[in-house]
Write a sequence for this structure.
């Protein structure tokens, strides 16, 4: 009886939390394309796809996978140059937008509560949705490798909290992300570089959208690394225009020789930076 009461109480809380409400909003700094996130108050309250971290973990048999067409170096970004790039379309952009914190912060992002969550969302235990949720929770509960900080965020407030734990409590936190691609855009096509500019150098946090009934992002940061972020304006062969986030890891000397970026670009660890385009459903957090 007690367990049934706990489950019913949890589901009632979940229903109330995810009921009606508007997607949280922010504002855009038009000068550099950085989405500025709201600062926390003093009291502290305020889809299926291949994520980038999955693409970077491909094995040698995946080198011909179209999703691997995201890697390049800084010298490849030359105005007028054309290259094949993989940008999956976004069928429903709202899927990737955060719900307000008051609708998600009471909901445990925990494998322990997966059965109750599945019942609430009417997903069977053997469904694709259940498998995706299970995998997302597994990713969120991973122990961070040495020298890294990681975690999952479900709201702008929790994203700011995570970012300020890295950048410092007085940091102005912003987000850069690629433009949304229309449903008619080919997943893989040739794009020509029209313009590019550097957005940030130094500390940055990469956040990857994970499949879940509401927006969940897996964010990670490596201490002691140097990175650069560019915004690259591209035009596809079908005429589509795109502003793409281009992230460069400047020191690759400690990377595995089997990294897919090296295999695709014909490089070895330490020879060059490795860069990759970010899909529209992922984002880079910068101070």
């Amino acid at each position: 009886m007690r367990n049934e009461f706990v489950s019913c109480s949890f589901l009632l809380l979940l229903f109330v939390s995810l009921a009606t409400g508007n997607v949280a909003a922010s504002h855009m700094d038009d000068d550099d394309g950085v989405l500025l996130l709201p600062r926390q108050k003093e009291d502290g309250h305020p889809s299926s796809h291949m994520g980038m971290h999955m693409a970077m973990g491909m094995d040698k048999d995946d080198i011909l996978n179209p999703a691997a067409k995201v890697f390049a170096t800084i010298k490849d970004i030359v105005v007028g140059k054309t290259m094949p790039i993989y940008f999956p379309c976004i069928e429903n952009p709202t899927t990737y937008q955060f719900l307000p914190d008051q609708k998600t912060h009471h909901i445990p992002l925990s494998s322990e509560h997966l059965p109750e969550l599945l019942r609430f969302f009417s997903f069977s235990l053997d469904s694709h949705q259940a498998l995706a949720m299970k995998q997302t929770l597994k990713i969120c509960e991973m122990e961070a490798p040495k020298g890294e900080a990681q975690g999952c965020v479900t709201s702008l407030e929790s994203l700011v909290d995570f970012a300020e734990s890295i950048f410092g409590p007085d940091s102005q936190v912003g987000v850069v992300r690629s433009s949304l691609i229309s449903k008619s855009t080919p997943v893989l096509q040739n794009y020509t570089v029209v313009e590019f500019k550097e957005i940030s150098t130094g500390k940055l946090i990469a956040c990857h959208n994970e499949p879940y009934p509401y927006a969940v992002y897996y964010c990670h940061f490596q201490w002691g690394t140097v990175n650069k972020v560019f915004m690259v304006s591209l035009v596809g062969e079908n005429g589509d225009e795109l502003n793409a986030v281009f992230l460069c890891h400047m020191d690759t000397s400690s990377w595995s020789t089997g990294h897919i970026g090296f295999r695709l670009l014909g490089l070895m660890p330490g020879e060059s930076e490795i860069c990759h385009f970010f899909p529209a459903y992922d984002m880079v957090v910068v101070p």
